[in-house]
Design brief:
With 307 residues, this protein is of the alpha+beta class. Helix content is 42%, strand content 25%. The chain contains seven helices and ten strands. The radius of gyration is 26 Å and the shape is elongated. One of its GO terms (molecular function) is phosphorelay sensor kinase activity.
């Protein structure tokens, strides 16, 4: 059909174009086509030659490079602002403390100063989260169990999770040992739990699942993460049946202050902090999401191999 239209002059020949194809196993691949046309002595097209090249891996690498460069640029910009803001906030809280001492005998003023001080402390917490996102910190190389970190966080917050939420926990039978900071790993788990709870707020039968296991990097994983040299990982998946993330928002989900939630509900720092903490541990974070079907967050942390 296309060749007939070329012969008839209904369409112009295209030397190069890309399109998506679906393989027999249902996977989508991107193919780059290079086309040549052959003409007779009168200039009419008599035949064509087309060759296709699978450039899916190349496109994925380009996307990851673009994402990495964008996150580094954001980190540089936000890091400078956050540190400067943190220094100024220290001066403000110091002066508020002194003002409170002088206002002890005037309750109405003292109470207002206390409110201002509390707001400053809240902003300091936001700044600390920004700094976590913007710089790769040196962490203590403690040997820790991923499963124990997950159990501790879920045990601490089990009364905070609404009774109508089904919480499924399926952790590996054998402990998964990694090197890193227990506090940071727990913060990763805590942020993912809070994100999942927010995502299922309007779901009729809300459910969250935590699952862990050992993961061995395969060809597909290595093609998506060529910079990762480790082979064995402790894998944590946090899955919800919430609203999901629109395709057009996926490239922004790790950016600070980007959120698909009501702005009153969230600051948009949860996944940004998770991204920074995972980077601190030389790990990988992948997210799969479909609007209306839910979201799966995959965390891969280098595994300590036990004898």
């Amino acid at each position: 059909m296309v060749f007939e239209k070329l012969i008839a002059g209904e369409i112009e020949p295209v030397e190069f174009y890309e399109n998506s194809v679906v393989t027999k196993d249902g996977k989508e691949r991107i193919v780059a086509w290079h086309n040549s046309v052959f003409r007779d002595e009168r200039g009419n097209i008599v035949s064509t030659l087309s060759s296709g090249e699978d450039i899916t891996d190349q496109k994925l690498l380009e996307q990851r490079l673009h994402h990495t460069q964008k996150m580094e640029a954001l980190g540089t910009l936000i890091g400078g602002i956050a540190h400067d803001f943190n220094n100024k906030m220290g001066g403000i809280t110091g002066n508020l403390y002194l003002a409170k001492k002088e206002a002890l005998a005037i309750p109405s003023i003292f109470n207002k100063l206390e409110i201002a001080e509390e707001l400053c402390f809240q902003m300091t917490g936001v700044i600390k989260q920004l700094i976590t996102f913007t710089q790769k910190e040196m962490i203590e190389e403690d040997e820790i169990s991923l499963n124990e970190c997950v159990k501790e966080v879920l045990g601490t917050h089990k009364f905070d999770v609404s009774e109508n939420i089904s919480l499924y926990i399926d952790l590996a039978e054998n402990d998964l040992y990694i090197r890193g900071s227990p506090m940071q790993i727990k913060q990763i788990v805590n942020n993912l739990l809070e994100n999942a709870v927010d995502a299922i707020a309007d779901v009729l039968h809300p459910a969250i699942q935590f699952e862990s296991g050992m993961f061995e990097a395969d060809d597909d994983f290595r093609s998506r993460h060529p910079e990762q040299k480790n082979t064995l990982f402790a894998h944590l998946e946090v899955k919800d049946n919430g609203t999901g993330i629109p395709h057009e928002d996926m490239e922004h989900i790790f950016e600070p202050f980007f959120t698909t939630k009501n702005k009153i509900i969230g600051q948009g720092l949860g996944l940004s902090v998770v991204y920074g903490l995972v980077q601190n541990h030389n790990g990988i974070i992948d997210i799969n999401s479909s609007p209306g079907l839910g979201t799966s967050v995959h965390i891969y942390l280098p595994l300590i191999e036990k004898e």
